[in-house]
Amino acid sequence: MNAPPATPRAEAVLFDLDGTLVQTRIASWTVFSTINDRFGLGVDGPEQYFDLFRGNVYDSIAKLCRDEEQAAEVKEAFLALLRAEYSPPLVPGVGDVVRRLAGHCTLAVMSSNAMQVMRRVLTDNDLAFCFAHVFGGDVIPDKRAAVRTFLADSANTFGRRCSADYDEGGLRQAPDLASTVLVTDTAGDVRDAVEVGIRAVGVAWGMHPAEELLAAGAEFVALWPQELTAHLLGDAATLPPGGACAIPAAGAQAGTAADPGPVATGGCGCGCAGEPDPAAAGRVRRDRRRTAAGTRAATGPEAPGPTAARPGPPDEMLDAVRRVMRR
């Protein structure tokens, strides 16, 4: 019933952030409810808030305000609170899908959220260098304008393959309307994609149900993140990752317990070719040492006593170092 027709392989995939890449139903409403109460906007609960995304969310919020001045004040306050407090978890399985697609397509993120939030979410989940373009709501609030900006970019053929540099040597077909796809969880985004002329694919785990996404013009609605890879790449979905961000290997898989294996050379610590990222490489080395130490302690023929293995630095310290290095 929901089987997609034959479609061209995607050359460019534009992801929505909230509800598509990250879990947003609770996190986003928690932030907005504070704004709602402060300005008396009259939104009674999460479902009514989700209704605002059936069109451009800022246009929808403006209709709740008494005048343009208050609408601007509400938008500024909402974005400020998002920057300060919004840090939602990634949708399970989405990170692997993004890394797989990065080897075959130019990837971008388009969101009504603030650029600072997008940077935080993507860097915290080691996905920042999978994306060649990021369009935030505090830069281009209209996703139709963001899509047109992407399509008009003469360099939109060059993606990122999990390192800070762009894939200058990649000889790829330039994305056109038929090979550019917006992946989203809202009917408003789907309608924006259809209006611009690109394809739209929905996801069932976000704000709006599959039936509404299909009615708005989505060619397909994924029930699980892994379906996106199959639908967007077709037969190429079975190819090995190559230079893409492969799933980071655990220490025991990367090498032996005594020798965890070489640190990856790509910026995401996944083995892709690119300039090394010291922070990512350090994380990989630490994770592999911890895994190897745990393996030796649990299964080694001469397992050391409980005090023989020295613990690594506290997690709080590691988190602080990561935050400093990401600035």
Automatic annotation (TrEMBL):
Gene3D superfamilies: HAD superfamily/HAD-like (3.40.50.1000), Putative phosphatase, domain 2 (1.10.150.240)
SUPFAM superfamilies xref list: HAD-like (SSF56784)
InterPro entries tied to this protein: HAD-like_hydrolase_sf, HAD-like_sf, HAD_2, HAD_sf, PGP-like_dom2
Source organism, top-level taxon: Bacteria
Region of interest (Disordered), ranges: 276-327
Ranges of biased composition (kind: Low complexity): 292-310
Protein name per the record: Phosphoglycolate phosphatase
Native source organism of the sequence: Pseudonocardia kongjuensis
